[in-house]
Amino acid sequence: MQISSLDAAGQSGMRRGAAVLLEILRSEGVEYIFGNPGTTELPLMDALLEIPNVSYILGLQEASVVAMADGYAQAARKPGFLNLHTAGGLGHGMGNLLNASVSQTPLVVTAGQQDSRHTISDPLLFGDLVQIARPAVKWAQEVAHADQLPVLLRRAFHDSMAAPAGPVFLSLPMDVMEEMSGVDIGTPSVINRSSVAGGLDDLAKALTSIAPGRIALIAGDEVYASDAAAEVAAVAECLGAPVFGSSWPSRVPFPTAHPLWCGNLPTQATAIAERLSAYDAIFALGGKSLITILYTEGPALPPGCSVYQMSSDVRDLGRTFNTPLSVVGDIKASLQALLPLLQKAATPHQADYAAQAQQVAQARRAQRAEAVAEAKARRNEAAIPPRVAAWEAVRAIGPDVAIVDEAIATSSDVRLFLESAWPGQYSFLRGGALGWGMPAAVGASLGLGRDRVVSLVGDGAALYSPQAIWTAAHEKLPVTFVVMNNQEYNVLKNFMRQQKDYLSAREGTYPAMDIVNPSIDYQAMAKSMGVPSCRVTRASDIAPAIEASLASDGPSLVEIMITTG
Predict the structure, then answer these.
(1) Rounded to whole angstroms, how far apart are CA atoms 247 and 12?
(2) What's the distance, CA 280 to chain centroid?
(3) Cα–Cα distance between 39 and 97 in angstroms, integer?
(4) Residue 295: how many CB atoms within 10 A of its CB?
(5) What is the DSSP letter of 284?
(6) Contact by Cβ (8 Å): 446, 522
(7) Considering only CA atoms, which of 120, 168, 172 is closest in space to residue 146?
(8) 423 upstream amide cis, omega within 30 of 0
(9) Is the N or the C terminus of the chain less surrounded, counting Cβ atoms within 10 Å?
(10) For 378-418, where are the alpha helices, taking DSSP H only?
(11) 563: left (phi over 0), alpha (psi -120 to 50) or beta
């Protein structure tokens, strides 16, 4: 009878470093390794033959690999594990690694390194991986011996999840992966991070001291990470307060069908201040909720508006705006402890809070109805406006299918039209570096147990990581890629139009912002990777095309031709 090397390890205790690594991954519950192998990964690829319950997900470019792991980690709510190839592969993945860092996605990032026995001779593919990775990760280290793998890998998994969550990096020299070791891998540690914030009595008094109707909640990305949507809803209902989303979110972490949901804040400081001008205070749940893009005169916080915060990341409290009281703790656990204190303190004004809640819900319904009416009124125009495309796409997708959005031209309208009881439906490109959406949708499908996912992507963004289409086809994943195609970098043109002193804005000429001559043939691209596709030029055809795609077993691509405004 043939005995595998892992079986032999159980008898002799000796096995290669690559086998040790895979044993640790299996014990940590890792389902997938996202990667694109090269020479330095050969020991790992060989060891995979003996670990059937850890699957290797092949991406055809490292930028796609990182985003797949990011999408998986967000959907599965646990660290994603990926393996890149030397300095060049790490360099390819840096854009999406920065996205993951900004989004605070827990990732254990590894890269194969040259055999350390000949690095003195400057071999091909060698580079200082630790220094390359360091700006984009929480920490970076090179494994010196196979015996270090249990401690360093488990440390990486732990630290990627610790607040603030984010990627960590390990360099894996080829000789370490081939080194024989008898090290005991141990067992995973159990770490309960559900710490309850202090000062909750004072916080309850402070929040209820604000006049009914004069306080707003901001549900940041951390609400999703903490799975605290129900607790946020309970606090909002207690105070009769509107719930806004972050200005540039990674997630919409609150049920968009909830009557107190009021959509995401705008991305300019002056516009945010105008939106919040009706309030004396905001209660921000999670950090970095007021992200701005282009500079505008004045702060995002209106004068006289106090900021109360709750976050597990102490570094973000009081970072930009002065706060009379902010507390450190897990959002879910802390809100569960805060809620009874809040309800007791709010009892004298319960009728006022209820009246305010009705006013907020009525205003939200009116805003959405107006947008729907506009979309319907423009449905028969010769060319498809972005708002019409967003409305038709959202109603075809429905409330129960995950959406990964990187279509900037339609994203604000998509969020406006969402109406779902599921706070995990929608994710977005918080990092801002294009090329995340399509591969993130592939990873999200895997993280949701190979469930259906819709990738909304702009035509410009689609050209950064089209390799994701191949991985979706190879893995037979039910991912619908919806390309919103305006044949230009529309968001850049819009930004330039806002700058009245720009010559481009006055003359209507925008260098290097049109994707024409030649135009991209997305049907040919999809076909070359084994994915069926269609092109939509009439609004009435959008919903049927997306619905047909959602009814299919595997991936497909729907291209929607939209106008520039």
Answers:
(1) 57
(2) 31
(3) 22
(4) 8
(5) E
(6) no
(7) 172
(8) no
(9) N
(10) 386-397, 408-417
(11) beta
The predicted model scores a pTM of 0.95
One-letter amino acid of 506: R
Q: Per residue in 26-45, is it b (16+ CB within 10 Å) or e — as a string?
A: eebebbbbbbbbbebbebbe
Task: Kindly provide the b/e burial profile for residues 116-125, where b requires at least 16 CB atoms within 10 angstroms of the residue's own CB.
Answer: beeeeeeeeb
Helix (H, G, I), strand (E, B) or coil at 482: strand
The span from the CA of 197 to the CA of 214, in Å, is 24
Beta-carbon count within 10 A of 8 CB: 13
- The whole-angstrom separation of Cα 474 and Cα 472 is 6
Beta carbons of 15 and 46 less than 8 angstroms apart: no
What count of other Cβ atoms lies within 10 Å of the Cβ of residue 549? 24
Angle at 242 between CA 332 and CA 362, to 5 degrees: 135
Q: Identify residue 553 by its one-letter amino acid code.
A: D
Residue 73 neighbours by CB distance under 10 Å: 29
Q: Which stretch of DSSP H or E encloses residue 476?
A: none
What proportions of the chain, in percent to the nearest 5, are helix, strand and coil?
A: 45, 15, 35
* 93-113 pLDDT per residue, tens: 999 999 999 999 999 999 999
pLDDT tens-digit map of 126-159: 899 999 999 999 999 999 999 999 999 999 999 9
Q: What is the structure's pLDDT at 3?
A: 38
> How far, CA to CA in Å, does 329 sit from each of 314, 332, 442?
8, 9, 32
Query: What pLDDT is stored for residue 473 in this prediction?
Result: 98
Q: For the chain, count helices (H), then strands (E).
A: 23, 20
Q: Using CB atoms within 10 A of its CB, is residue 280 exposed (0-12), middle (13-18) or buried (19+)?
A: middle
For 459-547, list the strands marked E by DSSP: 479-485, 533-536
Q: Determine the Cα–Cα distance for residues 37 and 358; give it in Å rounded to an integer.
A: 56
CA dihedral (415, 416, 419, 423) positive or negative: positive
CB contact at 8 A, 290 and 264: no
pLDDT by residue (tens digit) across 521-535?
999 999 999 999 999
Chain centre to alpha carbon of residue 150: 29
Q: CA-to-CA distance for 561 and 559, rounded, in angstroms?
A: 7
Q: What span, in angstroms and rounded, lies between the C-alpha atoms of 370 and 363?
A: 11
Residue indicated by tokens 């804005």: 505
For the chain, give the longest Cα–Cα distance: 79
Neighbours of 510 (CB within 10 A): 17
Question: Mean pLDDT over residues 166-180, rounded?
Answer: 97
Provide the CA 333 distance to its chain's centre, in angstroms: 23
Q: Of all helices (H) and strands (E), which one includes residue 538?
A: none
Residue closest to 44 by CA, chosen among 155, 106, 30: 30
Structure tokens at 325: 């009281």
- Token pair 């092949």 in the structure block, residue: 58
Written as six digits, the tokens of 377 are 């009124």
What is the chain's alpha carbon radius of gyration, rounded to the nearest angstrom?
25
Half-sphere exposure of 397 (CA within 13 A, CB side): 31
- Please give the mean pLDDT across all residues of the chain: 94
Sign for the pseudo-dihedral over CA of 267, 269, 273, 274: negative
Handedness of CA 477, 480, 483, 484 (dihedral sign): negative
**Confidence at residue 12, expressed as pLDDT on a 0 to 100 scale:** 58
